[in-house]
Amino acid sequence: MGKNTFGKTMPRALSQSLKIMGEQIMLARKRRHLSMQDIADRATVTRLTVSKVEHGDPTVSMGIYARVLFALNLEKDITLLAADDALGRQLQDAELLRNGWSSESHEARFKGRVVKDEDKVK
Fold it and tell me: In whole angstroms, what is the distance from residue 82 CA to residue 111 CA?
């Protein structure tokens, strides 16, 4: 009997993104002239799992994706996930503006203020 997991359906855009990521991983492996078994050995997973990664299988854990990227010497790419959070920055900026933190009000608060030595950032 198979494992019962919740949320088996996934938004189409997310499925496509996973598929593209898998293809990019496959191309990285092929550019290095490595076999699936080479990557499986380096990532300590099975060849079948590497195949699932390369097909963008959503049931494969993030940890496995990370190990496969590490095996390809691409582990730094993991830090790029959610690095450019444009929506989050817009929300944060809107909140700051709502709370009176516009650049004009900031300049007005500190205009003419004498900066003492102890106030300077060292």
Answer: 37
CB crowding 86-97: b at 16 or more within 10 Å, else e: eeeeeeeeeeee
- Tokens in use for 79? 């830090």
Which is nearest to 64 in space by CA: 55, 74, 56, 53?
53
Q: Answer yes or no: are the C-beta atoms of 67 and 44 closer than 8 Å.
A: yes
pTM above 0.85, yes or no: no
Residue 28: name the closest of 67, 63, 68 by CA. 68
Residue ranges of the chain with per-residue pLDDT less than 50: 1, 115, 121-122
Selection from 17, 16, 41, 15 nearest residue 29 by Cα: 41
